[in-house]
Amino acid sequence: MTTTNNPAPLTAADRVKLSVRSILRGSGQVMFQQSAWTGLFFLLGIFWGSYECHLPQVAWGALVGLVASTLAGYIIPDKEPAGYDGLWGFNGILVGCAFPTFLADTWLMWIALFVCAMFTTWVRSGLNNVMAPWKVNSFTFPFVLMTWVFLLAARELPGIAPAALSAPELTIGAVAGHLDVSFGSLVIFWLKGIAQVFLIDSWVTGVFFLVGLALCSRWAAIWAAIGSAIALGLAILFKADPESISAGMYGFSPVLTAIALGCTFYKVNIHSAIWTVIGIVATFFIQAGMNALMLPWGIPTLTGPFCVATWLFLLPAYKLDDRDLPDHSFWGKLFK
Amino acid sequence: MTTTNNPAPLTAADRVKLSVRSILRGSGQVMFQQSAWTGLFFLLGIFWGSYECHLPQVAWGALVGLVASTLAGYIIPDKEPAGYDGLWGFNGILVGCAFPTFLADTWLMWIALFVCAMFTTWVRSGLNNVMAPWKVNSFTFPFVLMTWVFLLAARELPGIAPAALSAPELTIGAVAGHLDVSFGSLVIFWLKGIAQVFLIDSWVTGVFFLVGLALCSRWAAIWAAIGSAIALGLAILFKADPESISAGMYGFSPVLTAIALGCTFYKVNIHSAIWTVIGIVATFFIQAGMNALMLPWGIPTLTGPFCVATWLFLLPAYKLDDRDLPDHSFWGKLFK
Amino acid sequence: MTTTNNPAPLTAADRVKLSVRSILRGSGQVMFQQSAWTGLFFLLGIFWGSYECHLPQVAWGALVGLVASTLAGYIIPDKEPAGYDGLWGFNGILVGCAFPTFLADTWLMWIALFVCAMFTTWVRSGLNNVMAPWKVNSFTFPFVLMTWVFLLAARELPGIAPAALSAPELTIGAVAGHLDVSFGSLVIFWLKGIAQVFLIDSWVTGVFFLVGLALCSRWAAIWAAIGSAIALGLAILFKADPESISAGMYGFSPVLTAIALGCTFYKVNIHSAIWTVIGIVATFFIQAGMNALMLPWGIPTLTGPFCVATWLFLLPAYKLDDRDLPDHSFWGKLFK
Questions:
Q1: Which of B253, B261, B285 to mutate to test the interface with C (most CBs of C within 10 A)?
Q2: Is B198 in contact with B26 (CB distance < 8 Å)?
């Protein structure tokens, strides 16, 4: 019997190399970059930030989640060989960041983390099937959905007790403190907005992420920077809670929307740039609205606002190609 | 270069006329009437009612929302030229009624209103793409969804603070007062049920709306009247909160379901009439259920119950054509 | 005129027989068994359990709901003659169990029960149309959705006041008591997990259900038993509330997921068995999560966790056929 699909048998070294690449790409795909180097920089940023915040278990959780969800894809392979591009790992790494951030560090939590990370790979396959007719995909929603399930379950199951979840409440308490709007502080809030994509509260991590993005795509880094900046400006203008602003909590979803719309699902041009800016504004309000929505359970929105906003802005399937740009357009010339 | 699609160039006067017609039809389309005259009567009713209730900003908000959402359609045109039928404006006018009703009258609120109204046009395009395979559309849900987002966001963003939202709570307090069931009062509650489609608490506005409907479709006016009446009867029978009943809060969603099922998506006949009455009953219970659902956030259902009920009753795609009516049927003869 | 579709006219006795069979199959289809005998055993179990619990109205409610929803299918017939297989009745019988369990026994409640049971048949038709492209169906979700609507509405409508709903709350109170983990108690909890599929708190009813299942499919009985057992083990491991565990509240959804995945939508083999066990684990966590989700309204999850889990595990459409099993596989040989 000849295996025409596999012309040359893979050596053990090949397999290890492929697996490591799949895993690292899984890290990079959180921000839509199919690059092992980008993924490595993201992991470095996670390790730096989690040790800086005295939460080393977050970094190790990220690794475990990344491996578990990639493994799940190897066990039950999908029709499309998505995993080699890192599409098995990006939900799992986020599960791995979220569980040790919000739940107590017990062995049952680690089992739940492993199981939940595996679930995301299979759930992603199902949700992508659902969304295929409209040419959108599930983004990080498998992570969001399954992590919500487990964080809610943590309220009912003392075996995986919450460690750092807000108390469920109906109204946000009086907001203490004042926002420092010096230039240096704003830069820190802006970088934390990018770091919070992986739930890390460290501006250094934000720098790692920007560098990692730039390694694979200059535009991705630029749009990430723009997304966090616009969201920061809107949060200050609409007088959001200073504590959330200074931790970068308004930044992470707009960062993802910006990369998704600005240079991943649309080509870079002036039309798509305007559309992306509008999408960033929408993501900001959806983030604020979902913050209020989650209050009665005291669980975080995770990257849900990014998913909702990006679906809403991709579903109309507007054509924003370069061809739409008149040659004599000032903006068109500037950007071409 | 010849522009074969536009055989005769439009004059400036033509363009103004077309734009005004698009805008007025946007008002009429809230109740499925593609008529500028109906839209004008709706606007008159809104102006009358909002001045009567000492909330003139609601009427001006309606106009701003109508123009903003129609403008959004002109800026990023869809494949189908839906806007000329008023399909760009009907979500925006509702956003424009809702924002000044629930939020404080600040300049940031007006910016949010404008932005949210524009969003509805694009969100509608996306949601209609999603629903197209089942031959239903998004109705007023883009308004409902985006207004929910902004009303929730208002809890987090003091820049757009709530002015008239209920406090979030888990149980409705003891209901004070007694329902006046004299004939005159019932007529007022019934008319207010129709007026509340645009969030107006005035029976005179209800009369304006009925007249506006009758100008375009006698059956639409009849079904609006039936929808509000059945819902009023059920609310009394099942002992709903007197305050809600007397403000018409149980009427507006059944009114929309009645027009949608009774004479818009089905032809008028005895089979569709029975189906519509069942749909009105379902809308009443869905309205009550969604009232309870929204309690923890203190935000209104808006026309969500109408959307849910009408989707549920259109999705089975039952054939209720005239051909199904046996010729010897008493009811068939009466209505033919 | 010849009616070629009906070669021989049905006698009155035939019609009665067909109707009774449709109704009894409706009972059996709750656990995916198209068998009137299974349905009869389920009804016997319901009658036994509801009389044992001094809630006879639950048994009579089950009958009324079963008849009402089957009737709804006869009144507005669907394209597919699904009703003769019992597919009209299984949502209605669950509505009929739920209403008298949670709501006060008034004549308005019985009207609401009848109406809601009829709605489920039509809602099922619509939801199945929505889900058809992905080859999944709505399972018991029409029951779940419409019962949620009416239980929520009961908070607003004193005409259908709650009798045995939990108070809405944000956090679960201190859990009193200690779980008895003697073998005899565990068997009782395990059987109650099966009985709770129809909301019955009686281990004898669980025996009736297992026997009823075995009459139609030995594998269905085995998977029901496995589903309840795994969920019970996980609930103890993760330290769930003893009161819920001992009433079988963690068992009913995994039981349904087990039958659905293990021997209904997949053929019995070792691959599908592993997939089913994973699905049971997922259902357990989704059950715990949805318990927390419903807290602010004090309404039960019903069989929602089963629906969500089974959709998530069918949507990837993984091929788990016998052909996938290598002939030399130990497990493959064992099960073939």
A1: B285
A2: no
